[in-house]
Design goal:
This protein has 370 residues and is of the alpha/beta class. The chain folds into 2 domains: 31 residues; 286 residues, Spore Coat Polysaccharide Biosynthesis Protein SpsA, Chain A (Alpha-Beta Complex), CATH 3.90.550. It is built from 9 helices and 14 strands. The strands form 3 sheets. Strands 4, 5, 6, 7, 9, 11, 13 and 14 form an 8-stranded mixed β-sheet that branches. Strands 1-2-3 form a 3-stranded antiparallel β-sheet, covered by helices on one side. A hairpin with a 4-residue loop joins strand 13 and strand 14. The longest helix has 27 residues. The radius of gyration is 25 Å and the shape is elongated. Bound molecules: 2-acetamido-2-deoxy-6-O-sulfo-beta-D-glucopyranose (NGS).
């Protein structure tokens, strides 16, 4: 009888310990990560609280802004005691960088990427470190039209890079849907306008989708502003395309971009808008920063070049003539209509009608109409 009891008691004790351990774990450590993204704007105001990667609270159109408000919201949801890491004390350090890497140019599907390589990205294409205070909050703005196959290749490289740099960032794809010529500068202005309302980002990166960074030491956190990122591109022999080249990918703090009045809205063809932006920065006594050609390296995804080009003579005239107009052609005269907003798993997608007909009132385009 005693012989039989001993294993039974042992089993019972073991089970009790196990049950207690599970309960203890659940009671005391029910939530290990919590992160709140607070978008402080009237249009898109919402607070999303993610617990263990699940969105548990998503408050639309409310005015909660600070920790106390979030606490209140959580209290209402009987979860107050569960905040364990909202207060991020330490500043994040840029660490575990891998340096130069080979860009994977294989075609890949967005769904596959999300499931297999980019699970850390949150719905809408954002990420923020949870264990420490992010180095910077950055909006990545991608002007877009007819470049669907490039997007997954680009995101595959950019998301992990931005995560390693400990940034709180979101990727915004701004797609032109009207039938006018492509207007990169104006699309970027729209992206800036939308994203600065979406969340109080400090840093804004304007990025062509066909230029993929080869090195995670390229700083996407507005260490300097303005910065020209795409210094050396493979198809240009890894040299600066030309001394005054300011295209491809550029980065500004919010204040600096507002100071230059953004891009001109009037460059309705491929090319020129970036040269004009350089003029704007010079007019505001800003100096362009660049990292070295050995670090700021990019791979260009191959595609047929745009045929929407102005005759070169017109373009030159246009680019330099635009100088005096810079104060009344840009962020302060931006006209557009949003037609679509969607948070995809790896990016936030905006479609926009750039309303060219309205622009002719403000810009300089009317002098060079097609
Ligand atoms: C210049 C364009 C820029 C453009 C640059 C690089 O000619 O907008 O080429 O071109 N300026 C004008 O058209 C006035 S690229 O290397 O991407 O083919 O960024």
């Amino acid at each position: 009888m005693r012989k039989r009891l001993i294993p039974l008691i042992s089993l019972f004790t073991l089970l009790t310990i196990l049950v207690y351990a599970v309960l203890y774990y659940n009671i005391h450590f029910p939530i290990r990560t919590i992160f709140a993204e607070n978008r402080t704007n009237s249009k898109y105001q919402e607070i999303i609280i993610n617990v263990n990667n699940r969105t548990i609270i998503n408050v639309n159109n409310r005015t909660e802004r600070n920790k106390e408000d979030i606490m209140k919201t959580l209290k209402n949801a009987a979860l107050t005691s569960m905040i364990v890491s909202y207060n991020k004390k330490e500043n994040c350090k840029m660490e575990k960088l891998v340096g130069r890497s080979v860009v994977n140019l294989n075609n890949v599907k967005l769904d596959w990427l999300h499931e297999n390589e980019l699970q850390f990205v949150r719905q809408g294409g954002w990420y923020a470190p949870t264990e420490c205070r992010e180095r910077q909050t950055a909006a990545i703005i991608i002007p877009f039209r007819n470049r669907e196959p490039h997007l997954p290749i680009f995101l595959r490289q950019l998301h992990p890079l931005l995560k390693r740099q400990q940034l709180h960032y979101r990727i915004f794809v701004i797609e032109q849907t009207d039938n006018s010529q492509f207007n990169r500068g104006k699309l970027i202005n729209v992206g800036f306008n939308i994203s600065r309302e979406f969340f109080p980002y400090n840093c804004f990166v304007f990025h062509d989708v066909d230029l993929v960074p080869e090195d995670d030491r390229i700083d996407y956190g507005c260490k300097h502003s303005p910065t020209h990122l795409t210094v050396s591109i493979d198809v240009r022999g890894y040299k600066l395309t030309y001394a005054k080249y300011f295209g491809g990918a550029e980065m500004f703090t919010k204040d600096d971009y507002e100071k230059v009045n953004g891009y001109s809205n009037s460059f309705w063809y491929w090319g020129g808008e970036d040269d004009n932006l350089l003029v704007r920065t010079k007019q505001n006594n800003m100096r362009i920063h660049r990292q070295s050609v050995d670090i700021a390296r990019y791979t260009a995804i191959k595609h047929t070049p745009s045929t929407e080009r102005l005759p070169i003579a017109e373009k030159e005239k246009f680019r330099f003539k635009a100088g005096p107009y810079n104060k009344r052609d840009g962020l302060n005269t931006l006209q557009y209509e949003l037609t679509y907003v969607k948070e995809h798993p790896l990016y936030t997608h905006f479609k926009v009608n750039l309303c060219k007909e309205r622009d002719r009132l403000y810009g300089v385009l009317h002098k060079f109409e097609d």
